[in-house]
Automatic annotation (TrEMBL):
This is Citrate synthase. GO terms for biological process: carbohydrate metabolic process; tricarboxylic acid cycle. It catalyses: oxaloacetate + acetyl-CoA + H2O = citrate + CoA + H(+). The active site is at residues 264, 315. The lineage of its organism: Bacteria, Bacillati, Actinomycetota, Actinomycetes, Micrococcales. GO terms for molecular function: citrate synthase activity. Keywords: Transferase, Tricarboxylic acid cycle.
């Protein structure tokens, strides 16, 4: 390219279509999200999280027989290897829980003698193993921070029930289990978001699946992406009560702060997943009798609409929902990671099935050539 020709720069890759995908379709025009063609709202209403994971990986919902086999495999894979437990135990409590998840995925990978085998069957096996073990990692980390013993997985419980059981030592009310199941389904997949794209970049070098997931966890941690669900709760704590929300927002906007849980790179008119998660939050608010929390939620949402016309994203209702369920705030993004590992690994396998090294160009704007 000559010096005169100035290529278009797509900062943040905004608006750039880099590849095709058959896994999900995010449609801001119709405000819809489809997983393998199915509206996510229908999946959230009728499916278990196991069925949705199977759909993302295989392209079709499981038959009854296939589901039984898949559920049995997931349950067998839940217990953590002693090496993984030991490494978690050795990590300081000052480490963020996302650092624990990132390290645990790395150790699970390093412990796998087939880590370097990259056939579709082997990668599917690794995906199921990570899917089954991340709840054990996340639940154990929350418990150890509270000085509690690890709760071993319960093989008669489904994924969502068992996750809550391992975290809290009991299966909560069905209202809570259902809200949790819905959140996992909504968080599972969202096309070429930053963490999934990170996983695809790593996979495109023909690195292993575990490395791709480690990178994705790192990308998800940031507050402009998955870290926002944790950050929303810090905002709620900072504001305190609904009557202080408008004043807080005006001050935050005056300081040019980004308001966590609002805005989206693709949806500019509202996130398709929010109404479903908001309904789950409403059910939790009623169950726990926390109208005060809902008042704060609504006041801030309305004020943000009036001031900036910016709508909430999925992290806005998920943060307070996870808080009501009893999760520690710093555990919210690990919950997102546990759900999104389904989408990440589906994308790694899709990338590998039709690979091209991901390597964009940049426009140099440093010093002109010079010599010593
Ligand atoms: C599940 C998920 O990962 S969803 C995303 C979770 N992240 C968050 O909630 C963090 C808060 N939100 C944001 O920072 C942004 O909305 C992002 C990063 C998600 C999307 O950003 P972009 O697509 O790059 O939007 P962009 O930054 O161009 O915003 C356009 C305008 O809206 C403003 N804006 C966007 N989001 C916000 C926000 N949350 N608070 C305040 N202003 C905002 C920007 O400041 C910008 O204003 P300007 O034109 O006056 O400079
Ligand atoms: O799509 C995005 O950019 C972020 C998002 O909502 C997600 O990953 O769920």
């Amino acid at each position: 390219m000559s010096e005169q020709e100035q290529p278009a720069i797509h900062k943040g890759l905004a608006g750039v279509v880099v590849d095709t995908t058959a896994i999900s379709s995010v449609n801001p025009e119709t405000n819809s999200l489809l997983y393998r063609g199915y509206p996510v709202q229908e999946l959230a209403a009728d499916c278990s999280f196991e069925e949705v994971a199977y759909l993302l990986w295989h392209g079709e919902l499981p038959t009854d027989d296939a589901l039984l086999v898949f559920e049995a495999t997931e349950r067998e894979n839940r217990p953590l290897d002693p090496t993984v437990k030991r490494v978690i135990d050795d990590l300081p409590l000052t480490a963020h829980p996302m650092d624990v998840v990132r390290t645990a995925v790395s150790v699970i990978g390093a412990d796998d003698p087939d880590a370097e085998v990259s056939t579709p069957e082997s990668n599917l096996g690794k995906s199921v193993r990570l899917f089954a073990q991340l709840p054990s990692v996340v639940a154990y980390d929350q418990r150890r921070r509270q000085g509690l013993e690890l709760v071993e997985p319960h093989e008669e419980l489904d994924y969502a029930e068992n996750f809550l059981y391992m975290t809290f030592g009991e299966v909560p009310d069905p209202v809570v289990v259902d809200a949790f199941r819905v959140s996992l389904i909504l968080y599972a997949e969202h096309s070429f978001n930053a963490s999934t794209f990170t996983a695809r970049v790593i996979a495109s070098t023909l690195s292993d699946l575990y490395s791709a997931v480690v990178g994705a966890v790192g990308a998800l941690k940031g507050p402009l992406h998955g870290g926002a669900n944790e950050a929303v709760m810090h905002v709620f704590d900072e504001i305190g009560t609904a009557d202080r929300a408008e004043e807080w927002l005006d001050a935050a906007l005056a300081e040019k702060r980004k308001i966590m849980g609002f805005g989206h790179r693709v949806y500019k008119n509202g996130d398709s997943r929010v109404p479903t998660m908001k309904a789950a939050l409403d059910a939790l608010v009623e169950h726990y009798d926390r109208a005060d929390l809902l008042e704060l939620y609504t006041t801030l949402e309305n004020a943000m609409g009036e001031r900036k016309n910016i709508k909430p994203n999925l992290d806005y209702p998920s943060g307070p929902a996870y808080s009501l369920m009893g999760f520690a705030t710093e555990t919210f993004t690990p919950l997102f990671a546990a759900a999104r590992v389904t989408g990440w690994t589906a994308h790694v396998m899709e990338q590998l099935a039709s690979n091209s090294l991901i390597r964009p160009l940049s426009l140099y704007d440093g010093p002109a050539e010079r010599h010593l």
